[in-house]
Design brief:
Elements lengths: L1 H25 L17 E3 L2 E6 L2 E6 L7 E7 L7 E10 L2 E15 L3 E14 L4 E18 L7 E11 L1 E4 L5 E4 L4 E7 L4 E4 L3
Antiparallel strand pairs: 1-2, 2-3, 3-4, 5-6, 6-7, 7-8, 8-9, 10-11, 11-12, 12-13
Length: about 200
């Protein structure tokens, strides 16, 4: 009888120990979730400039023998950052060579009755000798399509569309002056070489 009881106790202890071991092996280490945009992809290249993401920063890397690793930080970005139509160009104004970086960001959200398509046009002007961002502008255009019910019973409905604009439309003139305009205002800017920034044009 003692042998039977002892055998049962050993069996129970073995089962309990096995269950604990099974639970212990079931634990897995947490896998880090990516929180930045795809690294190492050049979104645009021009002369010695490269627009790229490093860590959580969208930046312009400058290939310079005298200053390796030189960069101009544009902005902080997340994992969903995907610049479209990203490109460089260059122009002269007030005897200074400046560089223009432009790109577009697009996003959409949707529910059963409403959808929004958003386009953000981004423009930056860079001064390379001082590694300075001298001007930054964004224009956001949101196109909303919404199903609106005309009665309480939701038997009749109509589709309504709206376009909302925020920020300023960017215009670069041939002489390097800039116009920032929206529905209610228009700002004319000129480059001040001493201050290394764009300022309001004197009337």
């Amino acid at each position: 009888m003692k042998k039977i009881v002892l055998g049962i106790m050993i069996a129970l202890l073995s089962t309990h120990s096995f269950a604990q071991k099974k639970k212990a092996t079931a634990k897995k280490k947490a896998i880090p979730v990516a929180v930045t945009a795809v690294q190492g992809i050049p979104f645009a290249k021009f002369e010695n400039l490269t627009a790229e993401v490093k860590g959580t920063t969208f930046q312009v890397a400058i290939t310079d023998k005298n200053n390796p690793g030189a960069t101009i930080v544009i902005k902080t970005v997340g994992a969903d950052f995907k610049p479209l139509e990203c490109k460089f160009s260059t122009f002269k104004t007030n005897g200074k060579q400046l560089y223009l970086l432009s790109w577009t960001e697009k996003s959409t959200t949707a529910t059963e009755t409403k959808s929004e398509a958003q386009v953000v046009n981004n423009t930056c002007i860079l001064e390379l000798s001082t590694k300075k961002l001298v001007l930054s502008n964004t224009e956001t255009i949101t196109h909303t399509t919404e199903k609106v019910f005309l009665d309480k019973g939701k038997n009749a409905s109509e589709t309504q569309q709206k376009i909302k604009r925020e920020g300023y439309q960017f215009v670069l003139n041939s002489d390097g002056t800039i116009i920032l305009k929206n529905k209610s205002s228009e700002n004319h800017l000129v480059y001040d070489a001493a201050k290394m920034e764009y300022v309001a044009k004197k009337k």
